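job 3f2a | input accepted
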Amino acid sequence: QVHLVESGGGSVQAGASLRLSCSGSGSALSMGGMGWFRRTADKEREFVAAISWRGDGAHYSDSVKGRFTISREREAKVMYLQLNNLKPEDTGIYLCAATSHSIGTILPNTYHTWGQGTQVTVSS
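job 3f2a | predicted structure (124 res):
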């Protein structure tokens, strides 16, 4: 059984940086891709970034490309999201998720396990 816990959120001003972590347990966690989504006032689960099970492939939403970086330590079962040059529209609850696909997808319904989320608030 896979279990995920996010951490690292906070309240910052525009232009600042944060590093989110997603710690997991369960043998299946190392065998599939993972992803980050965010819950905002407008969207229940907006795709942010995803990474392959080996950590050698990743893709991002257009809104965060060039500012956010996803990475993972597969053996340690930890995934990260580095958030740079934050904007007020990045505000939301950031959720990590695990999938059985070799690389995370943009579709929430392809993930089998979700964390509870960590709040990121960016003020102008």
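job 3f2a | The two ends are 41 Å apart (CA to CA).
job 3f2a | closed
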